[in-house]
Amino acid sequence: xxxxxxxxxxxxxxxxxxxxxxxxxxxxxxxxxxxxxxxxxxxxxxxxxxxxxxxxxxxxxxxxxxxxxxxxxxxxxxxxxxxxxxxxxxxxxxxxxxxxxxxxxxxxxxxxxxxxxxxxxxxxxxxxxxxxxxxxxxxxxxxxxxxxxxxxxxxxxxxxxxxxxxxxxxxxxxxxxxxxxxxxxxxxxxxxxxxxxxxxxxxxxxxxxxxxxxxxxxxxxxxxxxxxxxxxxxxxxxxxxxxxxxxxxxxxxxxxxxxxxxxxxxxxxxxxxxxxxxxxxxxxxxxxxxxxxxxxxxxxxxxxxxxxxxxxxxxxxxxx
Length: 320
Prior knowledge:
The chain has helices at 4-18, 20-24, 27-35, 46-54, 56-74, 79-113, 125-135, 141-156, 163-171, 174-183, 204-213, 261-270, 276-285, and strands at 187-188, 192-194, 216-225, 231-237, 240-245, 251-259, 290-298, 304-312. The protein is an alpha+beta fold. It folds into two domains: 4-171, no CATH class; 184-312, no CATH class. A four-stranded antiparallel sheet has the order 1-2-6-3. The longest helix has 35 residues, at 79-113. The radius of gyration is 25 Å and the shape is elongated.
């Protein structure tokens, strides 16, 4: 959890010109919702956004005063009960706001490195309503990071993250979220997780745990067939494919788990770097004699090839 002075620092930097394009673009509405500032997307409202952050203490004082006056009116019958209710309410609101602002901070960092297109519509009001409710309870670092990635993904491409995915993440416990983080580098954007590439291997309990959570369906196989020339290219990410050389017409079946829709959403959005070497190792173990990695592109005849390819060395054989 960030100290209060760190929170104030990133908010002030954002409001005072650190990233004004975020406020004027599709992210403005979403970030404003999380930090509690009523500001619209157009740049004309940036000054109002800035002032709302600077005047946060004054606004809280007015709110506290108004709540206190209302509480005094209601507390005549049972002042002790009203005192406990107020403490409970304020504590709950403080925790919810802390969670939302920490997610907003991570979102800003995400969008710095990969800003959204100004043509993006950004999240709808209905989507933001659901997201805000779920984000209020995200108290662990893992969950905050997942929610931040999901919001950044929806800001970049409205409609790409389903409400079911938000609900799924909100229900994750720390154990399941850590398991998901562990397997994501071995998931392709074709909703496949290559199980034999995960080191150390998942236990039967861990595989079942993710299956029961709804992240994937386990114990599947994927056929990989090499051509007459002994070659095949396996796309694994949007800009990454693996070329493998083996004997002509070689065929193998790889152990996989098939991601659910929510699992696929997470793999596409959180998108950890793909573990190229670990994947190549299972190809070498299954008859490959050469592996290259690069961007898959189609030539004029429609045949796939790799652009800017580099070779992946085979694993070293332990000396006796």
